[in-house]
């Protein structure tokens, strides 16, 4: 792996914006289409959290190349996503 500044492509930035930084309440509507988007978004949060935790504890060449985008702010991303889970659980409990 060469030492250099990583430039993320547009699809990875779009993925992070849609599935991590848009509030869950945006997708939580009675409409079937937006409700399915909400379910996909909530499920993918678990995938992203699992990927980030595995990249912390398990290192190999493939993960080192793929995790370059998260290297600078991995802990922030984990904490931000974990705090957004509280909204999911309160929605389940109150309804």
Please give the structural blueprint.
Blueprint: H1 10-21, H2 32-57, H3 61-66, H4 74-94
Transmembrane segments: 38-58
Keywords: Membrane, Transmembrane, Transmembrane helix
Your description of this structure?
- It contains four helices and no strands.
- The chain has 95 residues and is mostly helical.
- The chain has one domain (11-94).
- The protein starts with 9 loop residues before the first helix and ends with a helix.
- 1% of the residues are buried.
- Residues 88-95 have low confidence and may be disordered.
The overall pLDDT average reads 59
Alpha-beta classification: mainly alpha
Estimate nothing, just give the exact number of structural domains: 1
Task: Detail the poorly predicted runs.
Answer: 88-95
Helix-strand topology string: HHHH
Helix content: 55-70%
Instruction: Outline the biggest β-sheet.
Output: none
Number of strands: 0
Q: Using the alpha-carbon principal axes, give the shape.
A: elongated
Helix tally equals 4
Keywords:
68% helix; 4 helices; 95 residues; elongated
In short:
The chain crosses the membrane at residues 38-58. By secondary structure, the chain is an all-alpha fold.
